[in-house]
Amino acid sequence: MSNDTDYPTELDLTLIEKWDLKEQGVLELLEFVKSKWWMADWGFILSGEEEFTLSLSTGGWSGNEDIIRALKKNFIFWSMYWQMNRRGGHYQFKITLSK
After folding, report:
1. Residue range of the domain that includes 18
2. Between 20 and 30 A from 8 (CA), which of 40, 47, 57, 69?
3. d(Cα 43, Cα 75) in Å, to the nearest integer?
């Protein structure tokens, strides 16, 4: 749950950091992240069916930057899915669901 300023709470960030992808699922993590992402209609783009591309743009908003830091701390997520980032707060991930 976000606080009154719509920033992700410490609990939100801890949940992202400690999300168990095997038990809780990667798509479920992404749904949770999307629910906390400021300007998700613009800065959270998930496309694909079996292989997904996730593009995140922080828009310079510190709450979104906090979410990125939490994702980076989730070692399994970051090491498996991160593809690239570029200047200006843009990140890209490739997610292939195993059958």
Report:
1. 10-96
2. 47
3. 23
The verdict on residue 3 lying in a domain is: no
Nearest to 30 by CA among 55, 10, 60: 55
Residue of 79, 80, 33 whose CA lies nearest to 56: 33
What six digits make up the tokens of 42?
A: 């613009």
36 found inside a domain? yes
Its pTM stands at: 0.92
| Cα–Cα nearest to 61, from 36, 92, 29, 82 | 36
Specify if 2 maps to a domain.
no
Tens-digit pLDDT profile for residues 15-68: 999 999 999 999 999 999 999 999 999 999 999 988 999 999 999 999 999 999
Confidence of residue 5 (pLDDT cuts 50, 70, 90): low
Dmax (CA) of the chain:
40
| Number of domains, the chain | 1
